[in-house]
């Protein structure tokens, strides 16, 4: 079922993903995909939440998508401004500040958001933190654990040497 979710998400987002499935699976539910111009990590969370982090080495960009079947009121294609933060223990890193997001809707997967940021910097922040959060003022939009990510990030970086 994971492959069908991944395939549906990649087709709907116009971000190609290898049709033969992940090139490697990592602890914590992280799957690595290799494409012509990017490598991507994909993880499904309890419920219907999916996090996809695609790294495009040629442009040093990370394109991140969060799809959550429980999100309501998201307008497909609409622009949103949310605060992006990372958490490691009691330490909250709000250094990313406000980031531009786009709304996305998929009939079979739910609604969500996507955004693009500086690739290497974002991946480094992900690697040293335990949680990725998206906030709208004082309201938490998404809060996603990044546990067991370090090995998957090493795989993503190695994969990216062969694309783009």
UniProtKB/TrEMBL annotation:
Keywords: Signal
Segment forming the signal sequence: 1-18
Protein name in UniProt: Uncharacterized protein
Organism: Sphingomonas panacisoli
Organism lineage string: Bacteria, Pseudomonadati, Pseudomonadota, Alphaproteobacteria, Sphingomonadales
